[in-house]
Design goal:
Structural class: alpha+beta
Order of helices and strands: EEEEHEHEH
Region (Disordered): 84-116
InterPro entries: DUF3110
Biased composition (Acidic residues): 93-113
Protein name: DUF3110 domain-containing protein
Largest sheet: 3 strands, antiparallel
Radius of gyration: 15 Å
Pfam families: DUF3110 (PF11360)
Strand content: 25-35%
Strand order of the largest sheet: 2-1-5
Helix content: 25-40%
Number of domains: 1
Amino acid sequence: MRVFVLLFNARTENEGIHTIQIQDPERGERNVVLMFESEDDATRFGLLLEAQDFPTPSVEVFELEEIEEFCQGADYDCNLVPEDTLAMPPESNVEETDWREEGAEPEAEAPDSEIDRIRRRLEGLL
């Protein structure tokens, strides 16, 4: 099944995936990746984020299993948003993200090995 998620700085070394933070009574604060069944619903959610002064996210399509695997590796939760569901962003935003807005000062050069490059890309999605 194909799902749509919101990415910041898509297809760059500084890529970040949008998450919401929830408080789980048993596991504490959790990051949740929203997976939208509908591209239109994901786009609407992105516009709502922009209205809250987020940078413009990109709507990207992935296989459901790929996002679930990413979330499992990152210890994130994921939630499928059914088509025609109006998801609303939380009223508050985190102060600092794990990614930088495109055009921000670059980080130090990364290691050359292929495994490190893949790890950086996946960590960038956090």
